[in-house]
Amino acid sequence: MLRLFIALPVEPTVKQFLAETITRLRDIGGNVKWVDPKNVHLTVKFLGDTDEKLVKQIAEKMDKIASRNQPIDCTLDRLGAFPNLRRPRVFWAGMTSAEGVMETLKHMAGAVDLAVSKLGFERESRPFKSHLTLGRVRIATGLEALTDYVETTQIEPCPVHLDRLVLFKSTLTPKGPIYYRLHEAVLGEQRFEG
Hints:
Elements lengths: L1 E8 L2 H17 L3 E3 L6 E10 L4 H13 L4 E11 L7 E7 L4 H17 L13 E7 L6 H9 L5 E5 L1 E8 L6 E9 L8
Antiparallel strand pairs: 1-3, 1-8, 2-6, 4-5, 4-7, 5-6, 8-9
Helix pairs in contact: 2-3
């Protein structure tokens, strides 16, 4: 079994920007496991433990969806927490875009969810929210300074270009997860069989 997820990777400039943001957040305090910036991505669908035999079919479905969607440009411009800043479990960086672009992203995530459900994966029960996970709360006390900072800080806007769906394999290690790219489907790229 392989631990898999489908995501939109971000460019090195965005990862560097987030590395600086995570450093500022870490310095404030609180018991949070911060994400290694090199692993930051926009998750489209977490598949979990998956039979290796399904990888080819998942890749084919990703190619079809990618060919019907163009690259997406948006702006990373805010911080937040799930479920909210009063009871944070996950800290994230959020994006805005020109009108309709976030709807396109939501539609693409829905198409991925529907496509892989035909291979036996459970449908998402929660609506898709585009975000980049920065850290997960370990202990829910002593976070006041951190939540105050997140609530009151306006981050410098950072452009984000999303141009491919990637099927990642995640290997969990004591030092954190290691991600391997199993398949890439470039948005807007037609693939022809033959």
